[in-house]
TrEMBL record:
Gene3D superfamilies: P-loop containing nucleotide triphosphate hydrolases. One of its GO terms (biological process) is response to antibiotic. One of its GO terms (cellular component) is plasma membrane. It is found in: Cell membrane. InterPro entries: AAA+_ATPase, ABC_transporter-like_ATP-bd, ABC_transporter-like_CS, ABC_transporter_ATP-binding, P-loop_NTPase. This is ABC transporter ATP-binding protein. The lineage of its organism: Bacteria, Bacillati, Actinomycetota, Actinomycetes, Micrococcales.
Length: 320
């Protein structure tokens, strides 16, 4: 896994990012750093502000406050050459019209100084067999692959992926993951949003949970939530037929003690469950909903737990 670089060498550096739509506060002072070769997964429920944050980093939306640098530039004032260094796969599938994937990739490759080969890109996203099919005749999943193809065509240094694998079948998702690992190995930084928690666990060096406009927790997937949240849970049914449950860092020892206490008889319906990323994530959201005020200031260490966050016409009812 790639380690986060210092602020001076971060591909993305954000301090105090805030955004309102009318009287609705979408983002409330977000801090964020992403290093070269790092995949950062930004998780959160629909409407949490993930897409808004990404669009600000892409230079497509203006923040109300904060310092934002992507590849050393303010996205709002960056020169045209900066845009060739980033790749974007937006949440919504683009309108491709009657052009074929090969035609689209050939056309857009002319705007990049060092594009990938069109054939290579088609193979990477699994569209070689559909290269000559009109894009508006492709399936939804194939059109999504074409979105991804256009996003990686320019060999970006910074790649923004907003729910990129929606509509992918399991085999295509695995192939996509392998492709992303190849990109990060070559130094590309990736900011990923996804509702597939297994995808975040597989790909991310770090995950951040966005709720109430704030990043309420941030850590490598295996450390998110801290030791207590990741403690295994042992459940069983006692001699009286009552369900029992206990958290313990030594589940094998507890099971042995239960057997001994029962005179050598194995307790009924014993199960040891180790919390997965989805369990931790849902627990953090529930914790935030119960106590929405921040426990510490933004900008804490990478494993911090910071409880948090005019209707926008394009995102009303969707993920803001």
């Amino acid at each position: 896994m790639t380690q986060q670089s210092s602020s001076g060498s971060a591909v993305v550096r954000v301090r105090g990012l805030s955004k309102h739509y009318g009287d609705r506060e979408i983002l409330r002072g977000i801090d964020l750093d992403i290093a070269a070769g790092e995949t950062y997964a930004l998780l959160g429920p629909n409407g949490a502000g993930k897409s808004t944050a990404i669009e600000i980093l892409e230079g497509l939306r203006r923040p109300d406050a904060g310092e934002i640098r992507v590849l050393g530039q303010d996205p709002l004032t960056a020169p045209r050459s900066w845009k060739a260094r980033i790749g974007i796969v937006a949440q919504a599938t683009a309108e491709f019209g009657p052009n074929t994937p090969r035609e689209l990739l050939n056309y857009f490759s002319t705007i990049y100084p060092n594009p990938r080969g069109v054939g290579e890109v088609l193979e990477l996203v699994g569209l070689t067999a559909q290269a000559g099919v009109r894009a508006n005749k492709l399936s939804g999943g194939q059109q999504r692959r074409l979105d991804v193809a256009l996003g990686i065509l320019g060999q970006p240094e910074m790649l923004f992926l907003d729910e990129p694998t929606t509509g992918f079948d399991p085999a295509a998702r695995r192939q996509f993951w392998d492709m992303l690992r190849g990109l990060t190995a070559a130094g590309t930084a990736i900011l990923l949003t996804t509702h597939y928690l297994d995808e975040a666990a597989q790909l991310a060096d770090r995950v951040g949970v966005l709720a109430g406009g704030r990043i309420v927790a941030e850590a490598p997937p295996a450390e998110l939530g801290g030791v207590e949240a990741r403690t295994p849970v042992v459940t069983w049914t006692d001699a009286a037929g009552q369900p029992q449950q206990q958290r313990t860092l030594e589940p094998a020892r507890l099971c042995t003690e239960l057997v001994e206490a029962a005179g050598g008889a194995e307790p009924r319906e014993v199960e040891v469950r180790r919390p997965q990323l989805e369990d931790i994530y849902l627990g953090l959201l529930a914790e935030h909903a119960a106590d929405p005020e921040p426990a510490s200031q933004p900008g804490a260490a990478a494993a911090r737990q910071v409880p948090a966050s005019n209707t926008h016409p394009e995102t009303a009812g969707a993920d803001a």
